[in-house]
Amino acid sequence: MAKLTLADLRKMREEKQQAMEMRDASNKDVQVIVGMGTCGIAAGAKDTFTALVNAINEKGLTNVLIRQTGCMGLCHSEPTVEVVVPGMPTVIYGNVDAATAKSLVEKHIVGHQLIDDKILDRPSIDIIKNA
Amino acid sequence: MAYESYVLVCGGTACCSSGGTTVVETFKKELEAAGLKDKVQVVVTGCLGFCEQGPIVKILPQGTFYVQVKPEDVKEIVAEHLVKGRVVQRLCYDPEQAKKLVAEANIPFYQKQYRIVLRNCGIIDPEKIEDYIARDGYKAIEKVLFEMTPEQVVEEILKSGLRGRGGAGFPTGMKWKFAQQQPKGQKYMVCNADEGDPGAYMDRSTLEGDPHSILEAMTIAGYAIGASKGFIYIRAEYPLAIERLQIAIKQAHELGLLGEDILGSGFSFDIELRFGAGAFVCGEETALLQSIEGNRGMPKPRPPFPAVKGLWGRPTVINNVETLANIPVIINKGADWFNKIGTATTKGTKVFALTGKVNNSGLIEVPMGTTLREIIFDIGGGIRGGHQFKAAQTGGPSGGIIPPQFLDTPIDYESLAKIGSIMGSGGLIVMDETDCVVDVARFYLDFTVDESCGKCAPCRIGGRKLLNYLKKITDGRGTEQDIKDMQAICDAMNKASLCGLGQTASNPVRSTLRYFMDEYMEHIKDKKCRAGKCTKLIQYKIDPAKCKGCTLCARKCPANAITGTVKQPHVIDPAKCIKCGQCELNCKFGAISHG
Hints:
The complex is a heterodimer. By secondary structure, chain A is of the alpha+beta class. Chain A has a single domain, classed as Glutaredoxin. Chain A has helices at 6-21, 38-42, 45-58, 98-110, 124-127, and strands spanning 30-35, 64-69, 81-84, 91-93, 129-130. In chain A, helix 3 packs across helix 4 (98-110). By secondary structure, chain B is α/β, with parallel strands linked by helices. Chain B folds into five domains: 5-93, Glutaredoxin (3-Layer(aba) Sandwich), CATH 3.40.30.10; 129-337, 3-Layer(aba) Sandwich (Rossmann fold), CATH 3.40.50.11540; 349-432, Ubiquitin-like (UB roll); 437-526, de novo design (two linked rop proteins) (Up-down Bundle), CATH 1.20.1440.230; 538-594, Alpha-Beta Plaits (2-Layer Sandwich). A five-stranded mixed sheet of chain B has the order 11-10-14-12-13. A four-stranded mixed sheet of chain B has the order 2-1-3-4, with helices on one face. A four-stranded parallel sheet of chain B has the order 8-7-6-9, with helices on both faces. In chain B, helix 6 (150-160) runs antiparallel to helix 7 and helix 17 (457-474) runs antiparallel to helix 18. At the A-B interface, helix 1, helix 2, strand 2, helix 5 and strand 5 of A face strand 2, strand 5, helix 4, helix 5 and helix 8 of B.
C-alpha cells in the first residue's frame, strides 16, 4: 500500500465508517465476531472459530462475514461470539464450544432463532457507554 | 420461519429460584393461546446481572426491560406488549420514578461501566488497521501534527488531569513537560507493557484488542516531547499481544502512519519492540530502562529521573499501556471532556481485571470514584457460590487488602492509599470466608521475595525475614513477639528500599495486620485457621459417637495415621496425619470433621 497523505487518511476513514455502518463488507450482511484474546483462545476460541467456518461452508452460506476481535471483557464466559443478523437483535453468546458453534450457524443464522442458555445479552456496543 | 420478537427470560440461579422457570412456561402457553407461537420466540438466557429485581424479562428488538415478573403478569405482557405493541408500564424497570424507563440504556446497572481505554476492545478486528481508522483511529495524530504545537499537546494532557495508570499515579502531563523542557536532541518514548502483577491482565487485553491505539498514543507523545524513537517493553509471555503489535507496526508503516515524514507533516517517529524475560522488577521504570539497554534489570536511585536522564542517558518518558490508551481520546474530545469524569483528584476511568471469588470475573472499566461494592456486587454479580465477602485485594503484591467496611469507599489513588492499599495496575482479587488472610499475605511475600532483584538490603533481607515469620505463623509456631518484629521490618522496608518493589512489598502484610489482627492472633494463640487454609493448623477428628468402625478411613489413609478395630470407634494420630482430607471425604457416616 502507498503511504497516506492527510486527505487519503480522511477519505479512508469515511469509507470504512460507511462500510461498518452498513455492516456490509462485500455483500455480506451477516457478521459473526469471535473474541480472540488470550482468554478466549485459552478457553477454546480457535476450535470455535474453525467450527464456525466449517459450518458456514457446509451450509454454503456466502453472506456471512466471520471476524475476530479482542477481549470483550466477559472472561467468565469465554469463548464469546457476537452474532449480527439483519432483522434480528444483535446478541453475544457465551461458552460457545464447537458444538454450540455449529448449532449457532444452523439455528441462529439459518433458522433465525436464538439459542437458549448461551445468550449473555450484554453487547458492549449498545449497553456500555463508549468514549 | 423467522421470528419477529424475542422474549428473553433470565435463567440465572437467582431468577430461577424466584420463579423464572414458571414464567418461561407461562409465556410459552400464553403465546400459543394468542396465536403468536411462530412469531415470538421465548429464550432462556444466562444471568442478565440484575438479580435483586428478578425474574427479569426482556423483549427484543425493542429492548424493553421488565422486572419482578410473576407468572400472572405474563398474560398482560403478551396481550399488551406483544399483541398490541404497548409497553406495560407497571412492570417496567424502576417503579419509583415517575417517568418510567423503557430502554435498558437507561438502567443504572449497565451505566456503571464506561469505556475509554477499552473503547475498541471486543469491537474491532485488532489485525486490521482499517477497523481502527473507522473508529476515529489516527484522528488524534492528524489533529496533533497539523493543528497543535508540542507545547499545546503537553498543555492539553496536563489540563486533562490524566495520571499514570501503572500504579503510582504521577501526572502524565508533568512527565511529558519535564522531557519536553530538556534541550533538543535524541529523546525516547517508552511504553511499559511489562505487566507483572498476579491476576492482572488489562494491559495484555488492551494490546491484544486495540494495538493501534498504543502506537498512535506513543507517536503523539513522541511529537510532544521531541522524540523520534519509541520502544514498547513487553513481556515475552504475551505472545499474542506481541504478534498483534508486530502486525500493527507493519501496517502503520505501510500506510505511512509510522516512520519517516508521517502523513507528510515532516515529523518522523518509529517504534521497536523489546521483550522482557518476565522479571517483575523490570516493571519499575529505571530497571526497565536498564533491561532495554541490555543490562541486568536492576533499579537505580532517582533523581535523576528518566525524563531528564533515561535511556542511554537521554531524556525518556515512560508511560504504561493503559495511560497511553487514554491519550488519543483526550486529544480528540478535549481535556475539558476528560477531566469531568472521575473524582476531584483522579480523572478518567480505571480498568480492572476482576478475578477471584466473584461470579462474573472479567475485564471492566469504570469511572474513577466508583465504589468497590458497585464493582464487586453490581458488575461482578456478587460472590460465587453464595459465600460471604471477606476482602478485596488491589494492586497485586504491592497493594493491600481491603476489608468489608470500606466497600463503599469511592476508588481513586488517594482514597485507596488512605485505607492502606494502592490503585496499582488494576488487578482486583475478591476473597471470601474460605480464604485465609495470613496465607494470602504469605503468598504475595513469596512472590516478591522471588522477584526481588537483591540490590538493596531492606528488600532482599527484609522480605526474606517477613516471609519466614509468615511461614512460622501459618505453621502454628508463631509468637506475639513475631508480630512486633514484622511491623518493624515492614516499616524499615517501606522507608529504606531503593525502588517501588521493596517500598511496597510489605503492603499485604501491613494491611492484613491492620484489619485482620484477630486472625493473626487466632493462628498464634489458638493455633487455628478459621478458613481452613493453613493445613498445618488443621486437626482431623473422629466423632466416636458417629463412627461405626467400618475401617474405610483407616484403609484410605495414605499415612497410616488412623487406627482402631472393626466395629469400634477409630482414632487419628495427629503426629502422623498429613491433613490430606481423604478420611473425611470417604467417611459414609459424617463422623470425621476438621477444624
